[in-house]
Amino acid sequence: MNEKVKDILEWILCIVIALVLALLIRYYIGTPTIVKQVSMKPTLLQDDRLILNRWGRTTKKLPERGDIITFEAPTNARWSKEEQDLSNPIAKYENEPSNIWESFVHNVLEWGKESYIKRVIALPGEHVEIKDDKVYINGEELQEDYLQPGVVTNMGDFGVYSDFVVPENCVFAMGDNRTQSTDCRVFGCIPLEKIEGKVWIRFWPLNKFGHVD
């Protein structure tokens, strides 16, 4: 093998290794993302640049109440009330990958994948009630200091899940901008395996650089 061919192969090998490492870090440790929705306003604004911590997904650990997470969007964000199973308040995911390649493209490369960003409100086994424009967990009003003054929580035009127990290995999440958020009130709780990451750091705009609560 001449030196030129050897150099080319070495470069190809370096590029392949770099790509594999980048994918591993992106999937298992952390990855950048951009806010494209208004549902977390004013905590997060459109075009904010964030770093997601994906270690929780890697270790299969549920997030805590108050954490801001991203998760795969359900198949349909607005099922009719007749199509919802109120006894099983879990979001529906019906278009699952059918082979290894599709799974790789969907879950690792995340091509064509839509995600939502919301705040965790309730955890497995907790009784959630949404009434009188407030949220109650196990009968006690939830103190939500992160909400803007005057923001209330109701079911809007599409909400279905207002009185239920969060299923095992699931979380109930809502946006801080309650009147402009399509969230678990509409499509149900999010299974652990569909949670993609926890919002960790905002790095843009620079004047808001830092940890996100």
Q: What is the structure about, briefly put?
A:
This protein has 213 residues and is an alpha+beta fold. It has helices at residues 3-28, 55-59, 100-109, 184-187; strands spanning 30-34, 49-53, 68-72, 115-122, 127-131, 134-137, 140-141, 163-165, 170-174, 190-191, 195-204, 210-211.
Q: How much strand?
A: 25-35%
Characterize the overall form.
elongated
Count of helical stretches: 4
Give the % helix.
10-25%
CATH class: Mainly Beta
* Distance linking N and C termini: 57 Å
Main sheet specs? 8 strands, antiparallel
Overview of the molecule:
With 213 residues, the chain is an alpha+beta fold. It has a single domain (32-211), classed as Umud Fragment, subunit A (Ribbon), CATH 2.10.109.10. It has four helices and twelve strands; from the N terminus they run H-E-E-H-E-H-E-E-E-E-E-E-H-E-E-E. Strands 1, 2, 3, 4, 9, 10, 11 and 12 form an eight-stranded antiparallel beta sheet that branches. Strands 7-6-5-8 form a four-stranded antiparallel beta sheet, with no helix packed on it. It is elongated and about 80 Å long. It starts with a helix and ends with a strand. The model has no long low-confidence stretch (mean pLDDT 91).
List keywords for this structure.
26% strand, 8-stranded antiparallel β-sheet, Umud Fragment, subunit A, alpha+beta, single chain, 4-stranded antiparallel β-sheet, 213 residues
SSE layout and pairings?
Elements: H1 3-28, E1 30-34, E2 49-53, H2 55-59, E3 68-72, H3 100-109, E4 115-122, E5 127-131, E6 134-137, E7 140-141, E8 163-165, E9 170-174, H4 184-187, E10 190-191, E11 195-204, E12 210-211
Antiparallel strand pairs: 1-2, 2-11, 3-4, 3-11, 4-9, 5-6, 5-8, 6-7, 9-10, 11-12
